[in-house]
């Protein structure tokens, strides 16, 4: 996590909270959470309005507009492209986001396929850990994916101004919320191991 100095705070439940503190609370599983619907455990966290995208119409278009809004004017600038990323839980959603971005580029595009067993250069979120991006979109047509993945996504950005989260809310009760999956037992075991070393 490499958050810039002097970044504006985010608003959680009407209170201003330092951005760094909010990101760390997500990672540690300490961000206040509630149960919604049939969930047996509280795992839904409120999203700051500064980063939560309100949209109408196509959610994929909305997240791409937020992150790649100047793409037609900046597509020749590798720095522009390198400073932006959209994360989403499932590969099926990645394809939709990629196609929407590609359709905005001039000219024709060609799709190449690779096999992970042959192409060892492909990266995972663990391999990308520690890399920062100035503009991160988190597209959540489904709730967050697994332990720590919400933290991995939000900790990539250097400022709340560069973070946009879009949740597809089919249930009004979940509007402005998303799941944060953190298995606190992992931290407890890790702490016990460190204390005994």
TrEMBL record:
Protein name: DNA helicase
Organism: Heracleum sosnowskyi
Lineage: Eukaryota, Viridiplantae, Streptophyta, Embryophyta, Tracheophyta
């Amino acid at each position: 996590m490499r958050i810039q100095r002097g970044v504006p705070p985010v608003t959680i439940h009407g209170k201003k909270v330092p951005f760094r503190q909010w990101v760390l609370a997500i990672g540690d599983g300490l961000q206040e959470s509630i149960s919604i619907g049939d969930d047996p455990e509280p795992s839904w966290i409120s999203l700051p309005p500064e980063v939560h995208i309100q949209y109408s119409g196509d959610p994929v278009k909305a997240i791409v507009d937020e992150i790649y809004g100047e793409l037609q004017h900046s597509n020749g600038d590798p720095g522009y492209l390198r400073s932006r990323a959209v994360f989403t839980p499932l590969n099926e959603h990645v394809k939709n986001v990629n196609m929407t971005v590609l359709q905005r580029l001039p000219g024709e595009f060609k799709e190449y396929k690779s096999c992970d067993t042959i192409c060892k250069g492909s990266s995972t979120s663990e391999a990308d850990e520690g890399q920062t991006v100035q503009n991160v979109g988190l597209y959540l047509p489904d709730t967050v994916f697994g332990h720590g993945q919400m933290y991995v996504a939000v900790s990539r950005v250097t400022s709340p101004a560069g973070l946009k989260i879009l949740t597809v809310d089919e249930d009004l009760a979940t509007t402005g919320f998303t799941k944060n999956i953190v298995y606190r037992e992992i931290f407890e075991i890790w702490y016990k191991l460190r204390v005994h070393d």
